[in-house]
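ok trying this again, last paste got cut off
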Amino acid sequence: MIEIKVPVLPESISEATVAVWHKQPGDLVQVDDVIVEIETDKVVLEVPAEEAGVFTKIIAQEGETVGARQVLGQMTEGSEIQDNEPQKTKTVTAVPAKVESDPEPEPQIESETNTPVDDKQPPEPQKPIIAKVPSTPQPTIAPKGNRMEERVPMSRLRKTIATKLHSATQNTAMLTTFNEVDMSAILSMRKSYKEAFAKKYGVKLGFMSFFVKAAVEALKKYPTVNAYIDGHDIVYHGYCDVSVAVSSDRGLVVPVLRDAHKMSMHEIEKNIIDYAARAQAGSLALEEMMGGTFTISNGGVFGSLLSTPILNSPQSAILGMHKTQERAVVVDGEIVVRPMMYLALSYDHRIIDGREAVQFLISIKDALEDPSRLLLKV
């Protein structure tokens, strides 16, 4: 008998939730077939088969909370299938009434186990699966006259997001400062070099690489923004691990660009594109979303013109990007139309003074309006 267990979870993750069973008792399983998906606080993990055989039993139902290395189900090796089959048929003789009351399970089990109708009854492990399918968290609709309401249980990821955001607003002295940046220089640079950049590196030149580079240079000038509070201490980082907020169907995730201060523009772009694709596929590793010293969130891709981003605890600051929009501005005493973007920096006022926060944001603004600063690092 082969046991299917929860993978080893990182130290910060103590439990997970059984999301979806891809195999049912009686199904043939090949090596590396995904048997079940489990949802942690950060990502959905796939549990593949390490050996080939037949899946025999579900132990942890969908929606059930499980811990590291807990047994989720069982399967039998191919050579043991015939030996175990008679034992399974004997175990169901004590519950014939329930088998008769549900006519559908019997033909379903026949097609899966390929045993004759005359000498086969549903195996005991399958009966609870048939009975408990409705127990999987399902939307419940409560009628009220001619109107309907839908109640849907929160996923583990959504619960974690809600808890962290609420904690950040309750346990920090969060404040937001704003500024705006003229995107003319960046748009001009992208237009001039986008083809050469894509040809050489195989990736498009986007906005995020400019913002990550500008943030890194500003973090070097103002190390407190790159620090965090731990009890009565301030912990300063000698590196810049920039978290990039990425939206997925399951919710918001923040994969980390490790050592962003060492990355080139094309490396930043490639990593962000890779993270975005794998976030949608649900294949980000837990380690890729742990840590981070500063976060950048781009609400502009959804059309947001202005917002106040919430801190990604325990970090002390987060930069919010927004939609680039042509607006009338005054330049050298004249009213001109320029592509402008509002920037928002939310920060923990317990560790970062207002003066420092404003200067940090202005440093980012100056670097973006004159990208040559990023090359000269001034």
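PB: full thing came through this time. Residues 2-135 form a domain with the OB fold (Dihydrolipoamide Acetyltransferase, E2P) fold (CATH 2.40.50.100).
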